[in-house]
Amino acid sequence: MSTIEINVPDIGDFKDVAVIELLVKPGDTVKPEQSLITVESDKASMEIPSSAGGVLKELKVKVGDTVNQGTLIAVLEAGSGEAAAAAPAPEKTPKSEQKAAEVSTGAGDVAPESGATEIKVPDIGDFDEVAVIELLVKPGDAVKAEQGLITVESDKASMEIPSPAAGTVQELKVKLGDKVRQGTLIALLAGSGGGAAKPAAQPAAAAPAEAKSASPAPAPAGDTPTAMPPHEPGTAAAGKLPHASPSIRKAARELGIPLDEIPGSGPKGRITIEDLQQFSRAVMAGATATRAQAAKAPVGAAATGGGGEALGLLPWPKVDFAKFGEIERKDRPRIKKISAANLHRNWVLIPHVTNHDDADITELEAFRVATNKENEKSGVKVTMLAFLIKACVAALKKFPEFNSSLDGEQLVMKHYWHIGFAADTPQGLMVPVIKNADQKGVLAISKEMGELAGKAREGKLAPGDMQGATFTISSLGGIGGRYFTPIINAPEVAILGVCKSQTEPVWDGKQFAPRLMLPLSLSWDHRVIDGAAAARFNAYLGQILADFRRVLL
Ligand code: CAO
């Protein structure tokens, strides 16, 4: 039986490209043209196919190795007649894909009417039509020569098409999903002097695309549940390369981010720069962990949860709703998707218990109304929520474990009191934070809360406005309802839900008296807090709300 050595074919100007994936293993039977490994530069990734068929005896490269034309990558044992079935054109696929990445072309004609340079898809080898999967720039962006403009993708390679010259993007002529081929006009570039420089054939010249082109998504929050990006580990099927462009993969490698743990929100589950940024923010904020981190976490630590499969649950029901009546599909706002993923994680990972109670706020409400009357001209309206924040700070000081966070086997006791409050906005639920609420008066808190709630509704909250909460209040008091189960904002350990107060007959020992009663619902993490402590917390909170002088005791 003869052996066949498979070498890296002519890959043009690519030098020292990294092996990022092994697609076969010793013992596998491979067919001619079957892909053996994937290599990647910072502008293109491509699969290297086998030039012959046979049984793989040995792989001569491993992930992380760098290869060049001629590098021995595998040894095949020619099977019965299989060796003879040599691929008709051994280097065809990589060569043509390399050509695509090379983009060495005079792709810069001057548009006659505007003087702008027309950027066209250069020679992309044997590719007939490739899909635009990413727009790396937008009109108005200044681009450097060689900077990637768009990413295109076939089933074997993805590559960035760089600008042949520096200038300003006047117009993009393609959109996501468009199919392009050699000669397709992709952009008009102004200020490039009308003469496009021929881009260097060496694709490794440019920095990762996202560093230049993708503006960071405004962080909806920092470490509150609504802020945390969804994290569903194990998104890419085992052994399969995550779907991402070369620049995203390079950025992920440099940041040490496991791409296969990031759910891709792009077409066909492709990982976008926003996905990468959200994941890295969450890891930095400690709100999520990579699988490696989770594996190191001690038992009892809040590890990241998988989906239903990880919990051994049935798959989500798939229903053809249209069979039963007319339907309409709507995209969900980004904030809603983010908060959904966080609420889900918190609900699944935290053993919640909710205690319901009532506080007599008859006197407090009278005081609030009188205060607002006195301060009519100040423009600041004192709401019940501002008093609740002060009352909660007092209760958190008396029961400090409610102001803590779990960190593995340890409890982090916080000696600061930052209170988050849920705000209902057109984009979804946001949780701005009143920092150092212990040091602020009710008037100052009311003013700040009004400003933060306004910013939340306008979508103008800065990430810092939503970070650092030690306890959260979710008030539905202005809307209605009696009691509900608020979901704890990890990594906090408790949250207070408040509903609409109403006048009720309350027995005072001698008679029923009309009292204004405020329904309270305290959810707490049973890993940290016991039921008795929760009952005491609620009782104390009720006492303070009934008579704030108790804070002085
Ligand atoms: N009982 C009775 N009335 C109440 C009340 C309570 N507990 N809390 C507030 N109110 C009254 C206020 O006094 C005000 O009445 P007036 O207009 O007559 O003065 C009215 O309800 C509206 O109050 P508000 O909503 O403007 O102010 P707030 O401080 O209570 O709340 C904010 C501010 C931002 C928390 C609120 O607007 C909001 O977004 N609430 C929803 C939070 C939410 O969605 N939570 C659920 C999270 S879980 O999905």
Topology record:
Blueprint: E1 3-7, E2 17-22, E3 29-30, E4 35-40, E5 44-49, E6 54-59, E7 66-67, E8 72-77, H1 92-102, E9 108-110, E10 117-120, E11 130-135, E12 142-143, E13 148-153, E14 157-162, E15 167-172, E16 179-180, E17 185-190, H2 209-212, H3 246-255, H4 273-284, H5 291-296, H6 334-349, E18 352-360, H7 362-374, H8 384-398, E19 404-407, E20 410-413, E21 419-421, E22 423-425, E23 428-430, E24 433-434, H9 442-457, E25 471-475, E26 494-498, E27 502-507, E28 512-525, H10 531-546
Parallel strand pairs: 21-25, 25-26
Antiparallel strand pairs: 1-8, 2-4, 2-7, 3-6, 4-5, 5-14, 6-8, 9-10, 10-17, 11-13, 11-16, 12-15, 13-14, 15-17, 18-28, 19-20, 21-24, 22-23, 26-28, 27-28
The protein binds oxidized coenzyme A (CAO).
Oxidized coenzyme A (CAO) is lined by residues 383-385, 421-424, 429, 453, 474-478, 486, 498, 500-501, 518.
